[in-house]
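agent> fetching stored inputs for the iron/sulfur cluster docking request
agent> found them:
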Amino acid sequence: MEKRISPSVPIQAAKPLKKIMADHFYELDRAVKVGAPKVAWCTSVGPAELLQSFGFLVYYPENHGAMLGATRMAMDMIPVANAIGYSPDICSYLTSDIGSFLKQETPLKKAYNIDAVPKPDVLVYNTNQCRDVKDWFSWYGRHFNVPAIGIHTHREIGRVEKHHIDDIATQMKGLIPTLEEVSGRKFDIDRLRESVRLSRECTDLWKACLDRAAVISAPWNFFDATIHMGPAVVMRGRQEAVDYYQILLKELDERVAAGISSVPNEKHRLYWDGMPVWGKLRSMAELFTGLAACVVASTYCNSWIFTAFDPAEPFDSMARAYTELFIVRDEPYKEAYIKKCHEFFKFEGIIFHDAKTCPNNSNNRYGMPQRLTEKLGIPCLSINGDLNDLRCFSEEQTKTNIEAFIEQLED
Ligand code: SF4
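agent> prediction call returned; pasting tokens
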């Protein structure tokens, strides 16, 4: 007998999620107004733990970029950055964020009644994901006349070797003098260990949450996870994130026990590779739900799983965690990774999102879909779109392609 009790029971953890994200921005806004604590901007897979160890509040422009995409404000902001020479072909997080700053408009106003993003005292990037983040942070560094410093990570790595770790750990230590000067505090290894410990706890819980989608039928999906990953991005290294994922994990377990699935009568299971189309999250989620297809796992949401974190070896383990990422690796590694996901999540097809302005997260461009179809015996579909620039996304075309893909699975 069908065990499912309700087709689309909302995830209750959305309420504490809303609060934790609001508190994050209020805390930053307050800090800027009273001048303490100092604010560091960090890339989403940058050395946030090191910054926290100096007492900085950490702000993540990519999160703001995603908000600009989700609210579709990005479309008005991108041309403003284009006008000062930042091409429409480069990262649309960068162009929408810088455009929003120049236009003095932010989604924080409507969401939290906050007028502007928090002014940085220092900007810290890691090029593990792309070069765009360095250009992005450097623009603000020049604008605010504050240091924009960073780590230059090796790219297209197969095996992560000791020399990679040694280099990145050394570069991280090289940030310390500037961070000491800006924060006015001496480096404290115990504070760093504590932050790494909390990040590890957060990451383990986040992984456990994502893993729950291996259950047939999955209690949540990729579109839910893109929203609930907020604390793993902006609050890792802090107790609040750990507390939040304990709540979410408990609820997901309850959903599994009660037979609550995110897609009613789940019939097909899919994997999503690449960035979300932020401005179309809801309609995409509805499209898949209508087709009884659940996107059970994704490269994107897995990107905030850092199993290497170890407070006993904070620098080496941070260097490893931020170098082991999918986006940093070569094609054979990525294919082996997706193969493992296939075994665990048991999906029958893969959707590759070819995001026009993010080649770094578009993995369909060098023959990977064809190789995976051959290796895994499952079909792949590539869709054209973008994370923020909706001029690159045809909803009708995508819908037609996805419907045809699901029909192919049914055949
Ligand atoms: S990885 Fe892609 S989306 Fe992220 S900052 Fe770089 S170019 Fe932009």
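agent> quick read of the result: Residues 62, 91, 93, 129-130, 132-133, 275, 358, 360-361, 387 surround iron/sulfur cluster (CB under 6 Å).
agent> awaiting further instructions
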